[in-house]
Amino acid sequence: MIRIGKLELGNFPLLLAPMEDVSDPPFRAVCKQNGADLMYTEFISSEGLIRHAQKSVMKLDIYDDERPIGIQFFGGEIDTMVGCVELIEQANPDLIDINYGCPVKKVACKGAGAAILQDVPKMVRMTSDIVKRSSLPVTVKTRLGWDEHSKNIVEVAERLQDIGIAAISIHGRTRAQMYKGAADWTLIGEVKNNPRMKIPVFCNGDIDSPERAYEVKNVLGLDGAMIGRAAIGYPWFFNEVKHFLATGEKLSPPTVSERVNVCRTHLIRSMSWKGNTLGILEMRRHYSNYFKGFPNIKHFRDLLVTLNTFEEINEVLEQIVLKYDGMSVSSGQLTVDSSSNKMKI
Question: What pLDDT does 325 receive?
């Protein structure tokens, strides 16, 4: 049983990665319904929280049906980060996560995210002060190192454990790699196999198939997998991984009706969270992902990103079901259900 503090997460938990403009409450809801074991919010600016900026404060919204959930935040100033702990705890998450992995320039240039990998003593001081201030378990998400010449994650993980973090998630790239090239899980395995390490070690990066999750679990021996891009528009990925790990067999991909139903649920949750107008606008970024691989979908997609009422959007979703009924989508390609006489693609 993998535990973070008092949280019991099963034998190989699947975590939803904190993704900016993706891992909001509506998306987390459909991932939870489809097998995710632990959620993380979008990463939140400590500077924004201290200033009570509306965008940052709204990211603190969590709901009971998402639990367990951690709130992730980032920043380059120790006093500001520590000062945010009380604000975060008021939102009543199950844990607090520190982002030491974001590689984007606007974050790193402020000494936050992955930039702090260049100053491990500062990382240790910041983490120690946050752990001391927090009444909740504190976890960390980070990368292998700043670049090819400073892959210091084995040392970093050990030092962070020693000052009290409850778990660590490691993305298998350096900051210099951004999201390019293949993730290298070798050093993540070394962190886990370090005899001094006692806390859970989770793997992140390129876990895009049940077979790769199997490798993380049974070849590298890691404690769980953090799923990011593979779940965007495809929250069924969590249950597909669990089924494969339990049986060695692959689940059939979701039907067109199942895809539409989850997309509709996502839309309804988005409207409920941000109001009808903004909820509909922010859902537009997701339609391409939900219907990836559908042939001749452009007409429907163009409608979905221009219509402004739930009734109109729902009508288009129903039209998608009617057109593609009997099809299933696997690896981005539609295939014909043998029980259907629908058109062949």
Answer: 79
Rounded to two decimals, the pTM is 0.91
Q: pLDDT below 50 — which residues of the chain? A: 331-332, 336-345
Q: At 81, phi and psi to the nearest 5?
A: -60, -45
Looking at residue 314, which CATH number applies to its domain? 1.10.1200
* Spatial contact of 93 and 70, defined as CB atoms under 8 Å apart: yes
Query: Reduced to 3 states, what is the DSSP secondary structure of residue 7?
Result: strand
Q: Which residues pair with 3 in a beta bridge?
A: 8
Same domain, 223 and 281: no
Q: Could you tell me the CA-to-CA distances from 174 to 154, 192, 246, 278 in Å, in that order?
A: 13, 18, 32, 35
If residue 40 lies in a helix (H) or strand (E), which one and from where to where? strand 39-40
Whether residues 8 and 34 fall in one domain: yes
- Positions marked catalytic: 102
Residue 42 to residue 29: CA distance in whole angstroms: 14
* Cα–Cα distance measured from residue 181 to residue 337, given in angstroms and rounded to the nearest whole number: 36
Residue where a domain stops, chosen among 200, 227, 247: 247
Alpha helices in 163-285 (DSSP H): 186-193, 210-214, 237-247, 256-274, 276-283
Query: What is the spatial distance between Cα 261 and Cα 267, in angstroms, rounded to a whole number?
Result: 10
Residue 74 lies in a domain: yes
Q: Where are the alpha helices (DSSP H) in 112-201?
A: 120-133, 153-162, 186-193
Q: Which of 138, 150, 157 lies closest to 176 in space, CA to CA?
A: 150
Please indicate, yes or no, whether residues 10 and 156 belong to a single structural domain of this protein. Answer: yes
CA–CA separation, 73 vs 88, rounded Å? 9
Q: How many CB atoms lie within 10 A of CB 63?
A: 15
